[in-house]
Amino acid sequence: MTSDLLAGLEPPPPSRAGIGPGAVVLRGRALGLVPALLAAVERVAEAAPFRHMVTPGGFEMSVAMTNCGTAGWITDRAGYRYAAEDPMTGRPWPALPEVLRDLAHEAAEEAGYPGFDPDACLINRYEPGARLTLHQDRDERNRGHPIVSVSLGLPATFQFGGLKRTDPLLRVPLTHGDVVVWGGPSRLFHHGILPLKEGEHPELGARRLNLTLRRAL
Ligand code: MD3
Ligand code: FE
Prior knowledge:
This protein is 15% helix and 32% strand. The protein is of the alpha+beta class. It has one domain (12-214): Jelly Rolls (Sandwich). The N and C termini lie far apart (51 Å). Fe (iii) ion (FE) is lined by residues 135, 137, 191.
């Protein structure tokens, strides 16, 4: 009774693979948690709505963002930074849901980074056409901590370079349920997301969500 019958019906088991120095993809690692993760995002967005922030250069980002945790990543004309309050509401960001904290802690451990205790989660929402240009994540105080990212909904093409902006780029698909842990040298590598392609995901519709769990302070 067995896996023969179920083989065509069930998603593949999670797999682990390196994609760069210190970076580990756990394919499908979040699949069993999707309802809890979506409920958590919905609850966060009720208190801290998704919004299109403005870059220091004055451009509105195509990705809509919100945060939870004791610190949230923001950008405006004054720059990129972490802030304890949501500038849209003047209130603290919603607390980091336990399901996110636990997933990040466990995924980091599975990737070789035990003891990860995130205090911030940036939630990115992509609609078709939305993209994230090549950048480094360097607003966190101690970049010795890894970052754990969770992808949900429509697939995206992730671009992964090196320490220099001009280093050659690797393209990696990130799909529903994938968790990636970025530590070691990869933590400071340039990366971005190509414009999201049109599509319809059975659970999320024409959207992609990406949650990045971080130690900001
Ligand atoms: C590699 N987010 O929020 S997730 C970001 O899909 C960000 O929304 C993308 O880049 C997204 O800053 C990519 C993968 C990711 C996240 C953080 C990283 C890769 C990373 C930090 C350092 C190196
Ligand atoms: Fe990033």
